[in-house]
Amino acid sequence: MVYLSHVLSDYTPTYGGKDLCNIEKVKKISNGDTSNNSHIHLSSHVGTHIDAPYHFCDDGKTIDEYPPEFWACKKPWVIDLNINKNELISYNSIQIQLNEIPESTEILFIRTGFEEYRNMNDKGKFIFQGPGIQADIGYWLRKKNIHKNDWTGFYIII
């Protein structure tokens, strides 16, 4: 199993360092309320998320248009890398690992280890100095046809 979720907190990084996550405690037993309750305010780009085709295309599907079983992948593949800040991953740098991917793979995860910086006070390292991929990997993935249904199955765990 590949665990993809992360804890939401005041330290959760956000896209571009904007639209911060805000967890507001609106009820507290310690204040005499009958229960503890919070309001969570966040952008759809906060925390673990997937960009549906609609995010980049007006006539693309939205997340709610996919049935729950769509999200279950039985044949994932994980590549583990040690990545430096600001490093771009190229096809040549991981060619051996890419060529080991089985034909039946539905989704590819590249785990860079950068997730350790997610909830630190110094959000700049995670947000602005994280790894990226070069276009040659995207071209390779299209040719390799790694996918589940109508999505290209690619994700970076950072």
List the helices and strands and how they pair.
Blueprint: E1 22-27, E2 37-41, E3 76-80, E4 88-89, H1 91-99, E5 107-111, H2 123-128, E6 132-133, H3 135-144, E7 147-148, E8 151-152, E9 154-157
Parallel strand pairs: 3-5, 4-6, 5-9
Antiparallel strand pairs: 1-2, 7-8
Pfam family, one: Cyclase
InterPro entries: KFase/CYL, KFase_sf
GO molecular function: arylformamidase activity
Describe the protein in words.
- The chain is α/β, with parallel strands linked by helices and 158 residues long.
- The chain has one domain (46-157).
- Helix content is 16%, strand content 21%.
- It contains 3 helices and 9 strands.
- It has helices at residues 91-99, 123-128, 135-144; strands at residues 22-27, 37-41, 76-80, 88-89, 107-111, 132-133, 147-148, 151-152, 154-157.
- The protein has a 3-stranded parallel β-sheet with strand order 3-5-9, with no helix packed on it.
- Strand 7 and strand 8 form a beta hairpin.
- The longest helix is centred in the last third of the chain and has 10 residues, at 135-144.
- The two termini are 17 Å apart.
Percent range of helical residues: 10-25%
Total count of strands: 9
Structural class: alpha/beta
**Helix and strand run:** EEEEHEHEHEEE
Low-confidence stretches are none
Strand order of the largest sheet: 3-5-9
Number of helices: 3
Strand fraction: 15-25%
**Shape by Cα distribution:** globular
Concise account of the structure shown:
The protein contains three helices and nine strands; from the N terminus they run ββββαβαβαβββ. It is an alpha/beta fold and 158 residues long.
